[in-house]
Design goal:
six-stranded antiparallel beta barrel, Thrombin, subunit H, 221 residues, alpha+beta, globular, 42% strand
Length: 221
């Protein structure tokens, strides 16, 4: 009897693990074509980030610091480009508008291959929720990491602005800025934006700060 009970419990664990892995694969496959790599070229230097497709007209949201001009000299060349994970070549994007205080920007690309991401209802977001971060980590393509929401509403001072954020332990690194923070239904919870530094200037690992979906929607509208 004990043996049968143990085998039954083991079967439950195997089935649950299999479903979890399948769900994570589904989340990736449902959203990978809604997330793009971003390249900013300013003069002779390139930098990289991520953007999220918000409609089928070719509009994407990203962080302002991803597309920000760092040189006031307008004679220096400046260009924003995007590409999907299935593309080799970049396509030029136009900057439509931006919000410096909340670190958001809207960019646009003219074509008809876009697949918009689904938005999460803010009321569904809870501390302890499982989340997934998708972004162009280290400019090595769109990667996916997993974590939980530590606090779904935290005000943090960054660049002399107070920003409302979602805190999670999903791992991000250089290039993830402007990426998607997703729930288990493959819906957009927030936009991964930054990590904090300690008093010595070292990045505090284990905490990721994202712009919540309601602030994203307010910016878009």
């Amino acid at each position: 009897m004990k043996r049968i009970k143990c085998l039954f419990l083991l079967l439950i664990v195997i089935v649950f693990s299999s479903c979890s892995k399948t769900n994570e694969i589904n989340i990736y496959e449902k959203t990978i074509n809604s997330i793009v790599e971003v390249k900013k070229t300013e003069g002779d230097s390139d930098s990289f980030g991520t953007a999220i497709c918000i409609n089928e007209d070719g509009d994407f949201i990203t962080n302002y610091h991803v597309i920000k001009r760092n040189n006031a000299n307008t004679d220096i060349s400046y260009q924003i480009c995007i590409r999907y994970s299935f593309e080799e070549d970049y396509r030029i994007a136009d900057v439509i508008k931006f919000d410096v205080e909340n670190d958001m920007a809207l960019i646009h690309v003219d074509d008809n291959i876009h697949k918009k991401i689904k938005f999460c209802n803010l009321s569904k977001i809870k501390n302890g929720d499982t989340v997934y971060a998708l972004g162009n980590s280290q400019n090595q393509g769109i990667t996916m990491t997993k974590g939980i929401i530590s606090n779904y509403r935290v005000n943090v001072k960054v660049d002399n602005y107070i920003r409302t954020t979602i805190v999670s332990d999903s791992f991000i690194c250089e290039g993830n800025s402007g990426g998607a923070l997703l729930n288990t239904n493959a819906e957009l919870v927030g936009m991964t934006s930054f990590r904090l530094k300690d008093e010595y200037g070292n990045i505090i690992e284990g905490l990721t700060y994202s712009i919540p979906i309601d602030i994203i929607i307010e910016f878009i509208n």
